[in-house]
Specification:
Thrombin, subunit H; 39% helix; six-stranded antiparallel beta barrel; six-stranded antiparallel β-barrel; disordered C terminus
Amino acid sequence: MRDTRESRLLLVLLISIAFALITVDLRGGEQSPLDSARQGAASVIGPVQEGVAGAVDPVGEAVAAVRDSDERHSRIKELEQEIIELKRQAGSTDRNRARATELDKLLKTAGAGGYGVKPAEVIAIGATQGFSWTVTIDAGTEDGLKRDMTVLNGEGLVGRITTAGPSTSTVLLANDPDFTVGTRMEGSRELGFATGRGGNSMNVQLLNSKAKISEGDRLVTFGSHEEKPFVPGVPVGEVTEVKRKGGDLTKTLKVRPFVGFTQLDVVGVVVEPPREDPRDKVLKPDPKKPEPTPTVTVTKTPGAEEAGAEQPGAEAPEAEADQPGGAQ
């Protein structure tokens, strides 16, 4: 429509009519003459509004679903974190239980030998190929540790301290090729020197080439002067092979250590040696050797035998008294 004088007059007229209708409708209230017209318009526009609403609702539901999906995803992440934490706690509980068991075994071994020990935990392991077999423990000079102290666990000899720092120490393991310790065989007291061979094996050179040694025989540390670096009586291992070579001045034994060097956790450093050599007391009872059965011997004295021989004669008069002739 062009902006002319006639169009402006028409617009003013339409506005005036609209205001007049609004005034009549407001004054009439429920009895307004426009109520029927309004209801008719509602009946026409209502279905259109419902259709529009029906078309818009899926979009709203999709937006709500996306929002709920984000919330569920966040909750899933929270649950996953809770599961990880629970697994960590369970693993920590199992680890603490295992450490408690190791500590209990260590204290029993120390008590059997009369050793004063400082418990420590293995926190690092050294190179095992081309270098020395070593571990690092979380105790040092601040805990009273020094170089050349014996290290053991609940099974037996672990090694000796080579370097002691303020809070950590380095331990040379007994299976290291540069490790040597004096040994004594259980029972026979035969002396020798054990050296590491890496892995889980040691060699022992016995001083007596004619000593009678069998597979399964066990040995302990002989001890050093002033108990440094080794205290006596610490279990070392058991013989797995006897190498027999005629003419040798010594006898070579292959020994399996009691300690698993790849599974070290809790160890103890001997800070106080025993008052006396425990000999074989620290060794656990050998299941391969049954305990001897006690025997009881019964002896009879000559007097008792004669008294027993007279018993039949003493019963004879009673037998005669029972005879009819004896009653007469």
